[in-house]
């Protein structure tokens, strides 16, 4: 247990530690933020691919209602503004997932800090972090065997439903035992307090924040909890935490996945470079799913083993994030031409090294979303409904989110509710019209919940994420972050 202002050494290489267990924060923001802490209190150490980033660890309470109780280490990283004379302040980036590493977003050159424009890197210190329970921030740790044994979310009988409930209960107990008390405090509302502790430790009186995908939920809840501590906030690929139940969660998510499949099929129809151009893409897709269901479809990543139907759908779903339509078409064409596997082939087993492995998803997601399903009958009805909404993408990744949380004790720590932000600076939302994971309808709904506080910037193209979709999107967002200049209502940017 660490107390106020006590410094500790980090076990990880090249990381400093500052204890902030004593900066307990109220559940609602005070009109005047407290005096910021000195930035020099953080023991930064050089890190990163090029040695020009800085890493540290903050000691924070596991349970913010007990600020003097047990603590954990929150890993953070920073790159300082390249032009200190033009520096605006600190931009805190909220990573997505759940499971993405914000530390790697800052420390890595390729696929990391290059996400941010030259202008942002020139004008801001860029800071991010591994959220609690993820990466280097006391990761949720579980039995590798139990993680490997996760049942398929394609539940087709009452017996399979019961087996999933049993497995989830065993996994929760195992992860809780191995992880300790943080397992029950991995929710986003707890991470909101962590972000405000980062703001205070950096010496910033107000927060400039850019959240992406699941990081937008963090931003929304920060603005709701500490509205007067927001200087500027960008929410890119927007989560809607007001969706009340599993039925509406699944139908909205899978409708977006189906829309992305429709965009892919239309692209193949008009583009000669598509490996399936001139063919019936939907018929080929239906045949591949049927072959996968029978265990006849070879897994290209594991010769001699079968690619399960869920794995096939997940492969397509992931490709829509880019979108990487040409690569997906080539993969589907190769699978279509592949000879069927011999009878009795089995799916490839997921590999996990050692006795334990990390589970960066369920502890956080299942603490943030109350999506109970009573029994197999209700689950089957959900699947029948989603099949009508998404005939090609019925078993996309959101189904796995539902199945992984089956049997979760209720109430969850951070259940859904309508967003209520009062007194915040303007918040800029950005979303692609054809986003497979965070539907455009979600962004529009969150903008309505924010009312005059929110402003929606629309990218007319496809893919998950919209900041780096050409100069229109990037320059508009950069102008808001640097000079607080909002785009006019209804602003759209063309597809790139």
Characterization of the model:
36% of the residues lie in helices and 15% in strands. With 496 residues, it is α/β, with parallel strands linked by helices. It folds into two domains: 45-138 and 186-242 and 417-493, Rossmann fold; 141-185 and 246-341 and 354-416, no CATH class. The protein is globular and about 65 Å long. Mean pLDDT is 91; it is low at 1-18 and 20-40.
Give a nutshell description of this structure:
This protein has 15 helices and 13 strands.
List keywords for this structure.
2 domains; 11-stranded mixed sheet; disordered N terminus; 36% helix; alpha/beta; 496 residues; Rossmann fold; globular; two-stranded antiparallel sheet; 13 strands
Number of beta-strand segments? 13
The CATH architecture term of the largest domain is 3-Layer(aba) Sandwich
CATH C-level class of the largest domain is Alpha Beta
In DSSP terms (H or I, runs of 4 or more residues), the helix count works out at 15
End-to-end gap: 52 Å
Structural class: alpha/beta
Structural shape:
globular
Share of helix, binned: 25-40%
Assembly state: single chain
CATH superfamily of the largest domain: Alpha/Beta hydrolase fold, catalytic domain
Number of domains: 2
Order of helices and strands: EEEEEHHEEHHHEHEHHHHEHHHEHEHE
Report the C-alpha radius of gyration, rounded.
23 Å
> Could you please say which CATH topology of the largest domain applies here?
Rossmann fold
Strand residue content: 15-25%
Spans of at least 5 consecutive residues with low confidence = 1-18, 20-40
């Amino acid at each position: 247990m660490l107390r106020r202002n006590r410094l500790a050494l980090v076990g990880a290489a090249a990381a400093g530690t500052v204890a902030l267990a004593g900066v307990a924060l109220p559940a609602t923001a005070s009109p005047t933020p407290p005096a910021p802490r000195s930035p020099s209190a953080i023991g930064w150490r050089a890190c990163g691919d090029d040695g020009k980033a800085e890493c540290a660890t903050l000691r924070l309470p596991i349970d913010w209602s007990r600020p003097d109780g047990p603590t954990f280490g929150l890993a953070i990283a920073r790159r300082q503004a390249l032009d200190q004379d033009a520096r605006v302040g600190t931009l805190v980036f909220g990573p997505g997932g759940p499971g993405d590493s914000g530390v790697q977003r800052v420390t890595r050159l390729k696929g990391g800090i290059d996400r941010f424009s030259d202008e942002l890197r020139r004008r801001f210190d860029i800071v991010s972090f591994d959220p609690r329970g993820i990466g280097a921030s006391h990761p949720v740790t579980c039995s590798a065997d139990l993680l490997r044994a996760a049942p398929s979310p394609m539940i087709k009988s009452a017996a399979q439903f019961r087996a999933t409930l049993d497995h989830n209960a065993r996994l929760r107990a195992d992860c809780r035992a191995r992880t300790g008390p943080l397992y029950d405090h991995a929710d986003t509302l707890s991470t909101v307090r962590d972000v405000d502790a980062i703001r205070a430790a950096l010496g910033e009186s107000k927060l400039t924040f850019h959240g992406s995908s699941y990081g937008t939920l963090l931003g929304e809840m920060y603005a709701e909890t500490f509205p007067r501590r927001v200087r500027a906030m960008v929410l890119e690929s927007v989560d809607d935490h007001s969706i009340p139940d599993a039925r509406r969660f699944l139908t909205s998510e899978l409708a977006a996945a189906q829309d992305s499949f429709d965009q892919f099929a239309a692209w193949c129809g008009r583009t000669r470079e598509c490996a399936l151009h001139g063919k019936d893409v939907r018929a080929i897709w239906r045949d591949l799913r049927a072959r996968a269901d029978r265990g006849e479809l070879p897994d290209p990543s594991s010769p001699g083993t079968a690619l399960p139907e869920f794995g096939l759908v997940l492969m397509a779903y992931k490709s829509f994030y880019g979108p990487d339509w040409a690569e997906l078409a080539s993969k589907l064409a190769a699978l279509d031409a592949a000879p069927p596997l011999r009878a009795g082939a089995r799916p490839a087993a997921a590999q996990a090294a050692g006795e334990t492995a990390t589970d960066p998803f369920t502890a956080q997601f299942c603490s943030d979303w109350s999506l109970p399903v009573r029994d197999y009958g209700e689950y089957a009805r959900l699947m029948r409904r989603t099949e009508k909404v998404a005939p090609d993408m019925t078993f996309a990744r959101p189904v796995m989110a539902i199945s992984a949380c089956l049997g979760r004790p209720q109430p969850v720590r951070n259940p859904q509710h309508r967003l209520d932000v009062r007194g915040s600076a303007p918040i800029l939302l950005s979303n692609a019209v054809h986003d497979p994971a965070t539907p455009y309808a979600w962004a529009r709904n969150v903008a309505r919940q924010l009312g005059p506080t929110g402003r929606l910037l629309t990218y007319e193209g496809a893919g998950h994420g919209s900041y780096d979709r050409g100069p229109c999107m990037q320059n508009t967002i950069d102008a808001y972050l640097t000079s607080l200049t909002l785009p006019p209502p209804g602003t759209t940017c063309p597809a790139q």
